[in-house]
Amino acid sequence: MGNVQAVIDLPEKLYLSLSASGLTKEKIARESRKLFALKCFKEKVLSLGRASELSGLSKWDFIEYLSDNGVPVVDYDQDEMKREFETADNLSERLKK
């Protein structure tokens, strides 16, 4: 499958202000993709892998980007966390035997 292009329109005065700050169209597009990927991941619209793909970053770089922006990579509720710890305890007990 190919790519689909999504375009954002900016008022010319706004673009001129951004470009005067050193932001090129490419930088604006790159930052927009990263922020949109962060939002989609945070709202559970996209998985970590898909969101990192959308962002244009490697999975590890996207994880760092999430961390830099205060978005947890793992967001378990209390029941899920309890199950994870129980699984870890069970595995630990098996390895001791």
Overall mean pLDDT = 92
Main β sheet profile: none
N- to C-terminal separation?
A: 50 Å
% residues in beta strands: under 5%
* Uncertain segments: none
- Percent of residues in helices: 55-70%
* Run of helices and strands: HHHHH
Total domain count: 1
Radius of gyration: 20 Å
Structure description:
The structure is a single chain. Helices cover 66% and strands 0% of the residues. It has 97 residues and is mainly α. It has one domain (12-96). Helix 3 crosses helix 4.
Topology:
Blueprint: H1 12-20, H2 25-42, H3 48-55, H4 59-68, H5 78-96
Helix pairs in contact: 2-3, 3-4
Features:
mainly alpha
Quick synopsis:
By secondary structure, this protein is an all-alpha fold. It is built from five helices and no strands.
